[in-house]
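ok here's the first one, seq then struct tokens
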Amino acid sequence: MSSLLALPGTEASAATGACPAKGRIASGYGWRTHPATGGKVFHYGVDIANTTGTRINAGFSGTVTYAGESGNLGRHVIINSSGVITIYGHMNSLSVKKNQKVRKGRKIGTMGSTGMSSGPHLHLAVKEFSPSPSGGDYVNPTSYFKLPC
């Protein structure tokens, strides 16, 4: 993990996140065969499968930097939590808006199958912030969340 996590006031740290959603791990972080395209790709998150409408919670307190719909992730939410960015994709409904402050464990929406998806699930991704053009590096969400929960 980056040294950013040692800064005072940084809440997000190893395996301290609130449960983002109940369900089974359908796909882990790393190389896999893409379920929709069949191609070999690196999966930058963890897919938690359950039924449409399953509650999705903020893993950490922070600020919603995006809440909307676009591309492969469909409806999704991005939350910046003092240097750790969490991404919640393929949502059925959103319960938050851009620039809204959220608390750890608060409902941010429900599970769905929007965007490029093969069934209802939450795509959970984590980036450790950096000032680089990419905005940071993806890391395995299990570094921040005890999954499944």
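and now the second one, same deal
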Amino acid sequence: MDVAPAPGELLSSWLHRLAHANGVPRRYFGGFLGAAGENWSARLDRRLPERVLRLLVEHTRVPLEDIAGLAVAPDPLARLRLPLRPGRGGKLRIGVAGKLVAVLPGLSG
């Protein structure tokens, strides 16, 4: 069954609708795409492998550019961001490799 992506829809949402429309449980649909495992659709939102993109184009007849546009655009600054970690007393800590960089009082995780 053909299911067109909705304007502004995320790839994962469209894939879930596509699976449902074709009577395939979501947990198995990721395996069909070669992306099995926990959170498979969210991973595809962030990084859509070329082989999965080509498979979707072939089986859905949705243009490649339309499918690629459903994925989240890579953020070139993402690698520079420091992770937030919960600290004592509900304060968030910013740290890298076990070294504390900052404590943010007044923010809770």
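notes on #2: Residues 77-109 form one domain. The longest strand covers residues 99-104.
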